[in-house]
Amino acid sequence: MNNKFHIEIRLNVYEKLKDHSLIILFAGKAPQKSADETYNFVPNRNFYYLIGIDEPNIIFRAYKKNHKVEEYVFVEKSDPFMEKWIGKSISPEKAFMNE
């Protein structure tokens, strides 16, 4: 899916949202399989539908005030050591591009 799809969905939700409303969504995390292994990660469906990011441990926050919406995406700080083992995670700059 392209980013425009998720932007349109969010705008539709924001139109229906009352002033001084807050949306907080968590992508989730992969369940533990054993001490050092996890199952495959599947993002929370609501989170993915609105945001379109399929990475764990990301939080989305939107707040509507005076008919304007402020959106924030919180991502974990990158860890160069862990990136060797599990790959790079999304950067804060790329996490939530509205273009």
Helix segment count?
A: 4
CATH C-level name: Alpha Beta
Helical residue percent band: 25-40%
What is the arithmetic mean of pLDDT? 86
State the end-to-end CA separation: 14 Å
Measured on Cα atoms, how large is the radius of gyration?
15 Å
SSE arrangement, N to C: HEEEHEEHH
Judged by helices, strands and strand pairing, the structural class is alpha+beta
Q: In this structure, how is the largest beta sheet organized? A: 3 strands, antiparallel
What does this structure look like?
By secondary structure, this protein is of the alpha+beta class. The protein has a single domain (3-95), classed as Creatine Amidinohydrolase, Chain A, domain 1. 32% of the residues lie in helices and 25% in strands. It has four helices and five strands, in the order H-E-E-E-H-E-E-H-H. It has helices at 3-16, 45-51, 80-86, 92-95; strands spanning 21-26, 32-34, 37-38, 59-65, 68-74. The strands form two sheets. Strands 1-4-5 form a three-stranded antiparallel beta sheet, covered by helices on one side. A two-stranded antiparallel ribbon has the order 2-3. Strand 2 and strand 3 form a beta hairpin.
Features:
32% helix, 99 residues, three-stranded antiparallel sheet, 5 strands, 4 helices
A few lines on this structure:
This protein has 4 helices and 5 strands. The chain has 99 residues and is an alpha+beta fold. The strands form 2 sheets. A 3-stranded antiparallel beta sheet has the order 1-4-5, with helices on one face. The protein has a two-stranded antiparallel ribbon with strand order 2-3.
